[in-house]
Structure formats: structure tokens, C-alpha cells
Amino acid sequence: MAELLVVIPTYNERESLAAIVDRVRTAIPSADVLIVDDASPDGTGKIADNLAASDKSIAVLHRADKEGLGRAYLAAFDWALARGYVYVAEIDADGSHDPAELPRMLELAVAGADLVIGSRWVPGGAVLNWPPLRRAISRAGNTYARIVLRSRIHDLTAGYRIFRTSALRNLDLVHVASQGYCFQVELAWWLEQTGHLVQEHPITFVERTTGRSKMHSGIVIEALLRVTLWALKAPFGARKRSAVAS
Predict the structure, then answer these.
(1) Nearest 5 degrees, angle CA 145-CA 149-CA 152?
(2) Taking a C-beta distance cutoff of 8 angstroms, is the pair 205, 126 a contact?
(3) Of 96, 176, 183, 215, which is most buried, counting CB atoms within 10 Å of its CB?
């Protein structure tokens, strides 16, 4: 069994799934791939099954309902922990994250990082094909979260990551509160505050060219409310910070 499991959550990604799986397998052939499909009505789950049938390194986890990105990843973490993987990667199914960055991110994890974040907002990072408003919202949201949570992480909302599974075992994942993209903020901040080593690796994020974005105003509102609540509940000055490097 491979040491690295690459998790690809899907919901209505039939147009892009085969391509991103192929790119992952090309970038890091030694890794296994787990596709987590939330009962996509467009047939994504069937495509995933076909991919798994043709490659023993690919597995599929079918979930009965669409419960949000956070729940999909938590199910994948449980799957990975039960099978003894050393590292778990998160990557979007829409092609926005370049799998060619995986080997370098894995090197950082092997060297000791508990969480490696593919970051858009550190020197060397970039975003392509986003309208100015979306770029501004992402920048502002990350800046707000970083300030109120007193975090040193520049891209708290990033969805391209590699976790060391021993770090995940140190967290009480049952009590993760977030359902949507705020899950990424919660996990990164939680690891940082419990003294784990978090490193950011610059990536170029490319806006999807197929399918529809899952981002909507409700996700933004959830993130703002949860981040504000966490900041208010955390005792001032009581946080233990990890070494965060870019």
C-alpha cells in the first residue's frame, strides 16, 4: 500500500474527474487515490467506479447524500486512518489545483510538516482567471481570518493540502463544526494552535473551465460567522502557535 492517499471529493464533476485522476496518477504514481462522491446526480459516481475498476490504486467512497465538503473529507480521513496511510492529500476535482505540485508538497511533509498548504497568497503563489471581485473577497476573507484568529497562515481557506495522519490522530475530529469550505479554516487553525508544524507552498490556482463552481454566498457567510465566533471564544493570548513557514 502507498504511503500517500490523494482524496478527490466530487459532486457533479463528470466532465473533469477522469482528467484530474489521470494527472494525479501521472504526477505521483506511487500514491493511491480515493474519490469521495456525494451521490452526484450527473453520473460522476459511475465514472469513478469505472476508473477504480481499471486501476487498483483508485478506490471510491460513495456517500448517500450531499453533506458538504467538510463531511466528505472527514469520511475520507477515517478511511485513510483505518488503512494506515502516512499522508493524506486534498485536491479539487475541477482541475484548479495542479497535481504537478504534489511531489514538492509531499517532500515538505516527509521533512516534518504536519500540514502543507498549497497557498495562493504567499510570494510565488497566484490566481488565474478570477474576476476582481472574487479575488478581493478571497483576499479579504483570508486577511480577516488571519487577523482575528491571530494566525500566521496566509491562505487559511486553501483546499490544496497534505496532512500527516499522525497529526490528524491528535485532533478530536468528531467535534469539527464546519460543513462547507470553512472546514479548511478550522482544520488549519486547529493544527496551528495545537503546536503542529504548518508550511505553505506557493501554487498557481487556475479557475475551473468545466462544470459549475460550488461557491455561493452561504459559504462565505458561514465562514465569517464561524471565524468571528472562534475568535470571540478563544481566550486572548492563550493560543500556542506552531512554526509556520512559506
Answers:
(1) 85
(2) yes
(3) 183
Give residue for cell 487515490.
33
pLDDT digits (tens, 9 = 90+) for 60-99: 999 998 888 999 999 999 999 999 999 999 999 999 999 9
The 10s digit of each residue's pLDDT in 202-211 is 999 999 776 5
194 phi/psi in degrees, rounded to 5: -100, 15
Domain count, the chain: 1
Q: Tell me how far apart the alpha carbons of residues 192 and 47 are, in angstroms, rounded to a whole number.
A: 37
CA dist 182 and 19 (Å) reads: 27
Among the listed residues 227, 167, 226, 217, the one whose alpha carbon sits nearest the alpha carbon of residue 191: 167
We report the CATH number of the domain holding residue 207 as: 3.90.550.10
Quick one: cell of 14?
Answer: 463528470
**Domain encompassing residue 39:** 4-245
Read out DSSP for 34-60?
EEEE---TTSHHHHHHHHHHH-TTEEE
